[in-house]
Amino acid sequence: MSVEIDIAGLPHERIVFNPSPLAELGAMLHVLAEPGHHPGLHGWATATASGLRPDLADRLTEADFLWRSARSDLLLPAAPRATLAEELDDLDRMDDEKFVSAAFEVTCSSERSVPSPLVDAEQRVRVRELSAARGPRQAQFTDRMLENPAALRAWLRRLLEDCEEAFFADNWQRVRVQLVADARHKADLLRRKGLAEAMTAVSTAVSLSGDGTRIVFDKLQNGRAAAPADGLTFVPTAFGWPHLIVLNRPGWRPMVQYPVAAPELPRGPALQLVRQRMEALAHPVRMRLCRTLARGPHTTGELASVFGLTPPEVSRHIAVMKKAGLLSTRRRGRYVLHQLDLPVVARLGSDFLETVLR
């Protein structure tokens, strides 16, 4: 499973790396709404949430469906600007139908190509039903946007501006230098070593297809988009890990928000490897072998004797576990000793969670 962006014919100089204040604010708002996704930021989330004015906290809750379970495309500008105000100005220039459709796409649409509820009565009824099921706050927000989109858009802009004053401005100044440096580094890699090298540097979950016509994102979903002639934007984020966001909404310019590398952040394995490890451990015989191999190194013959299996049977199970990277092996004379790699197994839960949240 993967999301792909078709870049056939796109000059590599039109693939750009640039920080976005609005995208980073969206990442911060997501951390505040879902701190469980970001264990390394619990302290920041707690301190920031406790410092919010009650009225601001209430307004954030009213609109949090725009960034809680998934990030609204409205918060992911494909043409980043230097300031939050400039990016909000760009949002103001968007027509109401496109704005409202994108606002409700996160939780009120099963398909990205559905018409705007402003122009389609059936979709308007559906959006109201889905938002009502999610609670009175979202239902009220939905009604306000459908009845007076201009007023609601002004309300939302003021909310984001109040976030800038309350916590974003200080945090943006703190991380902006890091994000600019990361974007400059990726652009330099692209220029000097090529697109494949730059994509590898973005994330272990990003690669270039063998024919060089597609950028492939290793995710638990399928999607396909084509980069327009004016290019493709990669936006670094300091608050976004472990999420790797690929905006591939039809009719929108694709963009990618990727977490910047940091020493304290793990470089997770590929989705295929996580799946392979979980499948290897799910077999009842291999689970029993793990119990013994977790306690110390054993030879194939020892394991066969303990579990009443033939050596070839044990060898086949050992081969599966070795291929999944779950065992360490060393030779002692003419004997080969196998042992469960405890750190790898211990990380499997966090690796799985990172893959799911990616």
Automatic annotation (TrEMBL):
The keyword Transcription regulation applies. This is Transcriptional regulator. NCBIfam families: HTH_metalloreg. It comes from Streptomyces hiroshimensis. It comes from the Bacteria. Keywords: DNA-binding, Transcription, Transcription regulation. Pfam families: DUF5937 (PF19361), HTH_20 (PF12840). SMART domains: HTH_ARSR (SM00418).
